[in-house]
What we know:
The structure is a homodimer. In chain A, 70% of the residues lie in helices and 11% in strands.
Amino acid sequence: MADHSRALVALGDPTRRAIFERVASRPSSVVELAHEFPVSRPAVSQHLRVLKDAGLVRDRAEGARRIYSLDPAGLAAVRDYFEQFWRTSLASFRDVANRSHEEEP
Amino acid sequence: MADHSRALVALGDPTRRAIFERVASRPSSVVELAHEFPVSRPAVSQHLRVLKDAGLVRDRAEGARRIYSLDPAGLAAVRDYFEQFWRTSLASFRDVANRSHEEEP
DNA sequence: AGCGATGGTAAGTGGCAACTTACGGTAAGT
DNA sequence: ACTTACCGTAAGTTGCCACTTACCATCGCT
């Protein structure tokens, strides 16, 4: 499974993506996050686990709390995937446009 | 629902993403696609519908066949989302790094 | 008109994933 | 040591979604 694939599956869920964006904007603990979303604390924990497995999130222990923060690696992987995809796809897209252009002068 | 949100949900499914990538690389009909994936033709049709609703795919009638091709709009939306996200997140990420740096000279 | 090919959609099913509650385990404060 | 707070995980439930089969409409060809 490629690096971006797991990340895309993870970001496919709206709740999980919202949590990810929230964590990216400000590193936070689990209870802090659970307080801001309409889901239970274990649900947040499970989402964070998926995000972590996808390389999108890191966590560091800070006393009894675990602070989750952005992991640039996963985000970079997804970004690069779309960036590359955009370039190559747009190229072939232009090829098709040019081809149909040449066929009817 | 933002433009990129629907697209990300659509690309969350691996099969659907594979179909999308295949369509992007070469415009094709439904049966053609169904022949290349281990799912039935209606399944492909349904995936294409989701991709179309997400603005990721276009379709044009060509005789009795419908040729599906990439819709740059949806792809651009996702790309821009990650591009922007990458910039802002990386900025705040650097802020945190700098902050913790300043706190322990 | 009749036929074969294409494909959208309805209906139904199975499996999975997102969620809950319950429990246990660790860290800090008193 | 006891309590309180934080959190991961196990167990169970539910709803959704990806998939199938079946049916019907449309298009092109003879």
